[in-house]
Fold this protein.
Amino acid sequence: MHARLRTVILGAAAGGGLPQWNCGCRNCVAAREGTVPAQTQSSIAVSANGHDWTILNASPDIRAQMQATPALHPTGLRVSPLRAVLLTNGDIDHIAGLLTLREKQPFTVFATAAIRDIVESNSVFAALDRNVVSFATVALEQPFDLVEGLTATLFAVPGKVPLFMEGEVVVTDLVGEQTVGVMIEAGGARLAYVPGCARMTPDLAERLGCVDAVLFDGTVYEDDEMIVAGLGAKTGRRMGHMPMAGEGGSLEAFRDSAVPRKVYVHINNTNPVWRPQSPERRAVEAAGWQIGHDGMEIEL
């Protein structure tokens, strides 16, 4: 059977989802009222054959996400098509879902040494029975078999350590193993997944310019949108995420890109692009971007 790269966005929102449980912002109110579709937290699933699946980032919403995705439903008594989980950083919204996957189901967790250390240094993750769940350390820039028919390569992306590991001094654009992007290849098609990125570098821009599709960090539209909305004191860049708009934003970074399909993911509850008729949404779409949403499928 010819391999085709199939991607399902399980969760398009950033940490907290849409609506966020304690937030009464315009977007969260609209999501509760049903005028803006609710979204779960950051995660995608990929497969080359439709039977063997990998989940990239195990969000706290993973149970509901798998329930909403028929391709991930059990195929027998305690038999799941989930073969692997790959982590792109150690943020809570990307690792907490591992605890939901503790029911003696065999799969492999792929991560860099730095990200794996975050998980394995916390004893709560011992709930994943190591006689059933295996951990594999992956080096940057070294292609490896993710599941049948899928090849993955991890690459460094500017970012920061998880919030719960921050000290007094925070470097928001570290380049190393703590924040990575993923290049996924199957049947000659290539997809890049970068749910967190603090800034664009020349090397990263060159890499992302040669893919068939990119799923990229869309956390905030304006760098200061959370401050302006009265919902926080941090900018997007302080949180380790480049904004969509403005100088040094992702719209500018991809302005001359020839990538056929560009999709924003990991979108914060405050981001006005969630509203279909907003000027910001129209600007993003005019620039050739799609706003990712739960259940969106991309086949290459």
Notes: The two ends are 15 Å apart (CA to CA). The chain is about 15% helix and 25% strand. Residues 114 and 204 are 20 Å apart (CA to CA). The first helix runs from residue 26 to 33.
